[in-house]
UniProtKB/TrEMBL annotation:
Domain ABC3 transporter permease C-terminal residue range list: 286-399
InterPro entries per record: ABC3_permease_C, MacB_PCD, Macrolide_Exporter_MacB
Sequence intervals crossing the membrane: 21-42, 279-306, 327-360, 366-389
Keywords carried by this UniProt record: Cell membrane, Membrane, Transmembrane, Transmembrane helix
Phylogenetic classification of the source organism: Bacteria, Bacillati, Cyanobacteriota, Cyanophyceae, Nodosilineales
Family membership noted in the UniProt record: Belongs to the ABC-4 integral membrane protein family.
Protein name in UniProt: ABC transporter permease
Pfam families reported in the protein's UniProt record: FtsX, MacB_PCD
MacB-like periplasmic core domain segment(s): 21-248
Species of origin: Almyronema epifaneia S1
Topology of the protein relative to the lipid bilayer: Multi-pass membrane protein
Cellular compartment(s): Cell membrane
Top-level division of the source organism's lineage: Bacteria
Amino acid sequence: MDLSESLKMAIKTLTANKLRSSLTMLGIIIGNASVIAMVGIGEGAQEFVNEQLQSLGPNVLFIVPGNRETRELGSLENPRTLVVADAEAIANQVPAVVGVAPEYSTRSLVTYLNRSANTSVVGSTPSFLAVRSFEVAQGRFLSDLDVRRNSQVAVLGATLAERLFREDQPLGNQVRVKGVSFEVIGVLEVKGSNLGLDYDDAVIVPISTLSSRIVGRTSPYGIEVSFISVSARDRESMTTAEFQIRNLLRLRHNIMDEDDFFIQSQDTLLSIAGTITGALTVMLAAIAGISLLVGGIGIMNIMLVSVRERTQEIGLRKAVGASQQDILVQFMIEAVILSIAGGTIGTLVGVAGILAVSAVSPFSPGVSMIAVTIAVSVSGGIGLFFGVVPARQAAKLDPIVALRSA
């Protein structure tokens, strides 16, 4: 019997038992859909994290108070080892940097008329705009004069401006932070959150004003900062800038052994994020791949049942001249058809799942053609592998015994 005839017979047999064939494919469908969806979601999450880190600004280093071990232990109170004077020293004495922006953030109730929002209040300097790659949508940003005079001026994030002012014009109006009035001088362009802080829903004031009027002086060495953002001249200068900053701060802090700060580069953050999201993607795909194995076992079980049910048919075909190879090929074709059909449907379901997640989530999962190819190939291979046992069992049936047992 030629291959086309075996194929026609296999399709006829499978379509004659639609419910059983559909249930047999279900495991493969779920497995393929899970693998494709999980890989796509994992890659989308990785791309989303990378975009968030890239939005921090070009060639940026972050200097954080406290050593890495202290941060990892998660102490109740953040270390107070960095001050504005450190940022000024870096700007003046480190030739490899072009911008330095100290930041101190706290949470407070911000009010306008009868509207209020419990949000982040960020103290910074004019360098914040360039170092962190922000743009002003309306008005202006903080100036050096605002910082020197402890001016009570504020720049709002786009989301906060919308929440507080709605149809009103924010520029020139007053908002109150902890009972202190601030004149709104600008509104930022939409940027999104990064480093755990949503600047779109924040108010930015001069760091000197924040220290003197809102949080008070909390460090004996000057105005405390949560971290310092530093922009290097170019990507090649980042290692040099990190080395120079570390030496300068060690000298300023009289450090002889362990640093009381650590420097985090954008590349390091990207590498860590890529490692974590990549590992999660592999783990999710591996878990989803178990469904493919379960689907293959389901195919083998159903095919074994099919062999028992079709004993008379097998015996009759052998009696009229069908060879063992003909029987073997037919059952193998049936198993492969079930696997490929299940894989194809599973691929469509997986792609639909990715599109659904993309519509409701902040990141955009992509359809990985590599994942699709691997999933469909594996599902076809699983059908071939798990179809061998029932196919060989059918091929070895003795025609006389088969006809008698029917």
